[in-house]
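Workshop exercise sheet. Pairs work together: one partner reads the sequence aloud, the other fills in the structure field after running the prediction. Swap roles for the next sheet.
Pair: D.N. / O.F.
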Amino acid sequence: MENFVVSARKYRPTLFDSVVGQGHITTTLKNAIKNNHLAQAFLFCGPRGVGKTTCARILAKTINCTSLTPDFEACGKCDSCTSFQNNASFNVYELDAASNNSVDDIRQVVDQVRYPPQHGQFKVYIIDEVHMLSTSAFNAFLKTLEEPPKYAIFILATTEKNKILPTILSRCQIFDFNRIQVKDISEHLSSIANKEKVVFEDEALRLIAMKADGGLRDALSMFDRMVTFSIGGSLTYKTVIENLHILDYEYFFKITDLLRDGKLAQTLLIFDEILRNGFDGHNFLVGLMEHLRNIMVCKDNATIQLLPVSDTIKVKYQEQANATSLSFILTALNIANKFDIEYRNSKNTRLHIELALMKMAHISQAVNLSQVLSDPEALKKK
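Structure field:
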């Protein structure tokens, strides 16, 4: 039986051009190789799963490649590339600072730097989670980082740049990695699904991409889980919301219509159904806020592009936006935000959210009353 390889490893980028959503980083690194402007110390920082370690490995592989392509990518065929791909390269040294964070661990790195590479041009030292190093280890590393030999290049990767000493930051060329856009993650998942011959719905992949919150590795892990569940069938939107325990957007469309029309009883019944299905009340409130925000975005054609949904769902949002006044949306958002802030201090969380729904259901009446009071003639008639 062949061992299963998770998608995050199986489809890990091996070239700069295959890195997803970090064009500003890969272009700069390729130009640095092209013009021989390589710094001797890099700091890659950003959220988890966005390609920091991947780019570090690609850079280490590329600068030691003996026959670069015209696009300044590694050939993948020379001895240096082959040994790197087989994890047998003596020119690349990786250290996990999360578990090797003492002065002795850094001293071993400093001792190794003294020896030039046997083959190739550079010795590359990749230190992952560098913010986990102790203060003493950082201080022991300072001198080597400031004046390394010409053949030594250090690549530091971290998710928490604020924890790194300013003296270390001043000695590094800093690259800030972005959270990957929903569209880029969705397209990448689509290409992998086609390679794996998985039948899918676009909305299902887009939902996984949104749930990943900018991390491609998280998206690939969720994708593998969904594919495993749906073996023999297709990867559908319904499958994803069931397995990732996400509230169907249809609930929010229904509740918004009911709140706008002041139908409190039906709103409370749907909220009860949501709780009985095992969903958390706070997550419901946050989801309702996001839904109201999406409706507000649809009120202006210039901001519709900010809506991270498919064209089919976008039409539904536009229809509801046309039927809902801006005053209702803004007031409901204000109420939801207030109750979201106060949620943790509430002793009865269910009643807390029901109170928010009650206030939202009476927005239309309050608006009508204010209009009547502001018009003396209408008030006389009343």
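Discussion prompt: The chain has three domains: 7-176, 182-243, 249-372. What would you look at next?
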